[in-house]
Amino acid sequence: MVNHHRVFGIEQIRIGCFKSYFGKAALLAGVVTMFAATGGCKTAPAPASEALATSAVSAQDPASPAAAPFTRKHIYSEITDPRADIAAAFKQAKREHKRVLLDFGGDWCGDCQVLDIYFHQSPNQELIQKNYVLVDVFIGQMDKNLEVASKYGVPIQRGVPALAVIDANGKVLYSQATGEFSNMRRMDAQSVTDFLTKWKA
Q1: H helices within the chain, ranges in order?
Q2: CATH numbers and ranges of domains, the chain
Q3: Distance between CA atoms of 179 and 154, rounded to whole angstroms?
Q4: Could you tell me what percent of the chain has a pLDDT over 90?
Q5: pLDDT, averaged across the chain
Q6: What order do you get walking across the sheet with 172-175 strand by strand?
Q7: Nearest in space to 184 (alpha carbons), one of 6, 42, 78, 14
Q8: CA dist., res. 107 & res. 24, Å (int)
Q9: 168 phi and psi, to 5 degrees?
Q10: pLDDT (0 to 100) of residue 59
Q11: What is the distance between the alpha carbons of residues 178 and 156, in angstroms, rounded to a whole number?
Q12: Disulfide: which of 2, 4, 76, 143 matches 138 by Cβ 3.0-4.6 Å?
């Protein structure tokens, strides 16, 4: 069951009139409709997509009060050096006998937002804490840190979020070559659980 208080909380993500009884479906619906106009996370969204998404949320249930605009969570740092972050992650992974999980994406990407929600749900959150050192890598408008993605065999032009799993010695165990997770809005939390379980340390 989703722990809304521990994960984001209705107040934290400012879904507005979405009540707790809507559960996970309503939480994800807010994210999905927010980014519906982007046509998947292979290109950055048009500036008008947020207004279109807000209208779509209201249109879902005309009898309900108008929903407040969804506020994106800040996941991917635009200022940190991913090379330094990854180097630190390898040191931590060696020390704690874990693997490094790279997540390439951008805050503008609805599928990236959905993946982050799934990452913070049980049992995925526990799987990550026990087995992985997670590094979120900012890809700008599909034009930043491309050499980092290429180094680990991740063609981000096929869509984000894009994941790679590397062992503590730098060996790539998995790289997302075909955009497997770029449609997270159409996938469920179990798909993330299966992935984390398969590649855990």
Answers
A1: 10-13, 23-34, 49-60, 82-96, 110-119, 124-131, 146-151, 189-199
A2: 10-60 (no CATH), 82-199 (3.40.30.10)
A3: 9
A4: 62
A5: 79
A6: 132-138, 99-105, 162-166, 172-175
A7: 42
A8: 20
A9: -65, -15
A10: 41
A11: 9
A12: 76
